[in-house]
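Appendix B. Chain record.
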Amino acid sequence: MLGLKTHIDPKKLTLMGAIISLGIAFGDIGTSPLYVMKAIVNARKESGTLNPIFLEGALSCIIWTLTLQTTIKYVIISLRAHNKGEGGILALFSLVKNLKRGWLYIIAIIGAAALIADGVITPSLTVMSAIEGLEIYNPNTPVVTITLIILTGIFTIQQFGTNNIGKFFGPVMALWFLMLGVLGVIHIFDYPLILKSFNPYYAVRLIITSPSIIVILGAVFLSTTGAEALYSDLGHCGTKNIRVSWTFAKTCLILNYLGQGAWLVTNYHKVFDGENPFFAMMPEWFVLPAVLMATAAAIIASQSLITGSFTIFSEAMSLNLWPLQEIDYPTGVKGQMYIPKINWGLLVFCFFVVLYFQESGKMEAAYGLSITVTMLMTTLLLIFYLFKQRVNKLLILLFALVYLSLELGFFSANVIKFFDGGWITVFLGGFIGISMYAWYNGRMIKTKFIKFVKLENYISTIQDMKLDETIPKYATNLAYFSRSKDPSEIESKIIYSIIRAQPKRADHYFILNIVNHEDPYTYEYKIDEILPGTIYRIHFILGFKVDRLINDYFQQVLNDMIDEGIIPDRSSHPSLRAHNIPPDLKYVVIDNVYINDYLLTVREKIVMNAYNFVRKMGSNDFTAFGLVPHNVVVESAPLLYNPVRVHKIKQVGYNRFGED
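Structure tokens predicted for this chain:
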């Protein structure tokens, strides 16, 4: 995800792999100490004091939330639910989508959309929280302006790739976690009894006795928000590296939270005045270095979420949940991608969030709500996955009761913040989710109306066309894209294009079919010879993590066919063949298919209107498939041949020229 895949073998545990995993998988959760205790303090302000009993309960909630939610659910259980080494909610969906539950895609859509919304809030919140540390030196620090400048830099650099700087992310995050742990240990001695927080009794007591527990739990939940990103980064780090590095990261996080809690016992009045306990507990001389370290950690966390968003959209395209878009690979490193429209769209939303909230403390309301939704959806998909794996039903029931109760509780704690800013992530996540739903169902509706014909019925016609020199030769090699799942069938619109729209005589006709494979890195092709020397169907079998650079792949296929003597290596035109000029190639992309409204139900009309809107956010097929315009022809063709009107129009007259 960060351009480091070539440095890690996900199947092996290595020291370097564990260190690099800190920079890839734990950037989000690693920056949570910047704002978690501050949020807990804000939840307690009304009482006017932070007594040890409250702090012990709050810290106990943090420790056991990290243990139950992050360690057990994600690090121990979820990392087992991988798709050939790939993790994340869409990879999990690909493991269960073959179950006879036609609505599971909705769960995946909701979870993925909420996670993308989290990708907008995380950069804004983490960067602003770090920069606010400068207010200790100068209360008039232009935090918003600096935050916007840093965010602009983060998103701008995406188009150039992060391979060169990415190698430093792991070591920087290792230093960050060490700093967290050391600062925590120093202040634990301010109030050693804070260690009682390891006892879950204090968490239970706070939950039972505190009248504002819902608000407090909303703040506590912020400590585990990076767990979903951790799961998504499985394919880049590997289970073993993540588990080992999490042991180190969790230790440092808990030490820092304990240190902040111990310091707050006697210094709570300072944070009530608006200071962040994370920076306030430091010696003044160390604040500036800490701000610089926090900013670096925030940038790494932001980078992880941004590239994670690219991965989610890429997977969504492969699963037909999002329109195809142009994807660039700026460094050529496997797994690192850049989607221009997504990148700049995320930046616009980040700007809106920063300018709307102005302070990191106000963003916390928007932050927790989106990720609780993602975690709930992941839990639901995990339940189906455990059923598929034939896990003991009592264990599945226990898992469901524990995590649905826990996450519904956190959802209740965050949903009350809807009008305080949570509506922003609901709006963004809702927009993305509705778009995914419309695209998936719109494709299904179109497929229902597409007419497929048996290719064998047209073989003789195409063969005669090839020999008919009265038809101008259209191309030597002519390629079409087909989505037919039956290798013996083809869309009628392709036949319409070849035979009727403009007769297209060619030496070789290629039907290109993209098969989305569940194995993330499947990279294969096979050839069906339909008519020897004339018609071939090429099946590209690609995993959802493999680039859709069909132009490059097809050129490789043509080279293989030339090497095997199946097709000639030189132009069919004598003058060009004499100079060893290779044969020409032309693609025909058939687009702009129209469905008459009266063929659709009310629901289908609504879905298709949304589908047509979402379509504008995508790229042309030839751009998405890596084709170049010089040899691509885009055509329109009717979706249906058969007449849709049952009544024939009545003729009432026919006047010949010259007659009265």
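Further analysis of this model is presented in Appendix C.
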